[in-house]
Amino acid sequence: MPRLTRRRLLAAGSLSAGAAALHSTIPHGHPWEHEANAASSHHGNHAEGGHAAFRGGTVDHRANGFNPHEILRDFDWGETSRSASGRVVRSWTLVAQDKEIQVAPGISFAAWTYNGRIPGPTLRAREGERLRITFVNASKHPHTIHFHGIHPAEMDGVPGLGAGQIEPGKSTVYEFDALPYGLHLYHCHVRPLAEHIAKGLYGAFLIDPKEGREEADELVMVMNGFDTNFDRANEVYAANTIGFAYMDEPIKVARDELVRVYLVNVLEYDLINSFHLHGNLFDYIPTGTSLKPSELTDTVMLCQGQRGILEWRFGSAGRFMFHAHQSEFTELGWQGFFEVA
């Protein structure tokens, strides 16, 4: 019989089918037979609207120090100055911190964070600017920041190059040009790499093209997951850390207004992640390094580190679901609604 891990308990607890659903996590005969029976026999007794949700209350965003709804539209432009030549220099300070957060009701996670939140701040700049990132390691562990994009080797944020790994209490400065325009990411690059990413050291990094993009309601979604019992398998999946956050409180958007989602996948321990939109199709721009979409679709599949820009308009009011198109991810937190008015 498989070990009854917290992953399996959460799978049962995420459905309001109670003991029967919990019983279904223990295989009898075919491993999925009772899951299927529980889902069919208790259909309509799930969370509100017939959809999954974690049992036992809600996550305290104030105690966490960040809110997934605020992260959606929170773009950090840093502070600007001018070089002697008149060029814009855009600066930020990122601090690595050890911090316990709640990723589901009653489920605490010993995280490593940039600036006390997961994902870290969404850094935003304009193509061609000079970027300067001061990194302070206030953690008990060595860390770095590795930026995706174009930069000199000594600014790569990996051990053995440039400043190398930054020991606890130490700091360094990463400086490079904002190139190319597009949607990028940053993350720690210290071994064991999987652990440093899985514990929360990552964020989105956006460079706008010089000519800009069409005005839109812009949203950032960093797809991630959490291994709460350290078995190198995730028990919670989400966009912007908190499972079911956008089910409990749908994302409000306006009918006929252009919606632009900056989608980044940093999920560790699973080979692939995805985004599926109900009732609509979207233009998809891989890595955001073009002004023209590559396809019109309703589903994208992303490996870790892959990212892209999604654009669409809702032509009618109502609630439209979005979620990973891996059912397990969906049932363990990675789903939500857009509320169109």
For the record, give the distance between the C-alpha atoms at the N and C termini, rounded to a whole number: 49 Å
> Secondary-structure element order, as H and E?
HHHHHEEEEEEEEEHEEEHEEEEEEEEHE
Mean pLDDT: 88
State the low-pLDDT regions, or none.
14-46
- The rounded Rg comes to 21 Å
Please tell me what the overall shape is: globular
Number of spatially distinct domains: 3
CATH topology of the largest domain: Immunoglobulin-like
Classified by CATH, the class of the largest domain is: Mainly Beta
If classified by CATH, what would the architecture of the largest domain be? Sandwich
Question: How would you name the oligomeric state of the polypeptide chains in this document?
Answer: single chain
Roughly what fraction of the amino acids lie in strands?
35-45%
Strand order of the largest sheet: 12-11-14-19-16-17
Characterize the structure shown:
A 6-stranded mixed β-sheet has the order 12-11-14-19-16-17. It has a 5-stranded mixed β-sheet with strand order 1-5-10-9-7, with no helix packed on it. Strands 2, 3, 4, 6 and 8 form a 5-stranded mixed β-sheet that branches. The longest helix has 9 residues, at 33-41. The model is unreliable at 14-46 (pLDDT under 50). The termini are far apart. By secondary structure, the chain is mostly beta strands. The chain contains 8 helices and 21 strands. Helix content is 13%, strand content 37%. The protein folds into 3 domains: 6-46, no CATH class; 61-208, Sandwich (Immunoglobulin-like), CATH 2.60.40.420; 217-340, Immunoglobulin-like (Sandwich), CATH 2.60.40.
